Amino acid sequence: MARDMDFKRPPRRPEKVVHKPKKPKSSISVPMAIIIILGIGALSYGAIITMQQSPSLTTNTTNTAVSTIPSPVVTAPVASATGTTTISSMTIKIYDAGGGAASTEEVDNLLKQGGFKTDSTDKAQYEYDKTYVWYRKGLETQADQIKTLLKSRDVALKESKLEGVFDILVFVGKT
To answer: Could you tell me if 147 and 155 are in contact, meaning their C-beta atoms sit under 8 angstroms apart?
Structure first.
């Protein structure tokens, strides 16, 4: 007769331990989130302060608020043949920035009567309360002459830090 001992039992296998996958940690820790929120708040505060210190502007034709006066965007530098810029060789562009087509045409005629050669008149992207004259470095005297010619308008002079396909830009605002 066979006994239980005579049969070999298979060795006991240890039970497999099933590991549950860990929850993935978020990519941002709580302190990092606080720093990001504080940074966004500081940038917003700086933007508000900057807008409060900028000249007053009106809305454009689509009633979207205009908050800053953009510096003209240009691409290529202009070099004159003699190295100096004369009134007749300057590139002056005139933009209607809320003053209307009649005011822009009037400014164009005044500049031509003053000896300036205007390159073109066009509609500006923004509308301004007053007239702005952007000029390249070294052309402050000519910009002052333009301001004198436009004595019936409220004119502000701004030196452009960019050089490009213009010497002077005139944005004809409401006044």
So the answer is: yes
The structure's pTM equals: 0.51
Q: What is the mean pLDDT of the chain?
A: 74
Quick one: pLDDT at residue 26? Answer: 62
**Nearest alpha-carbon partner for 168 in 69, 109, 97, 86:** 86
d(CA 117, CA 157): 19
Cβ atoms 66, 59 nearer than 8 A: yes
Do residues 127 and 167 share a domain? yes
pLDDT at residue 116 in the model: 85
Question: How many domains are there within the chain?
Answer: 2
d(CA 121, CA 161): 22
Q: Which domain holds residue 139?
A: 87-172
Quote the DSSP letter at residue 43: H
- Pick from 157, 138, 159, 161: which is nearest to 149 by CA? 157
Q: How far apart are the first and last CA of the chain?
A: 121
Task: Flag whether 14 is in a domain.
Answer: no
Do 55 and 129 form a contact (C-beta atoms < 8 A)?
A: yes
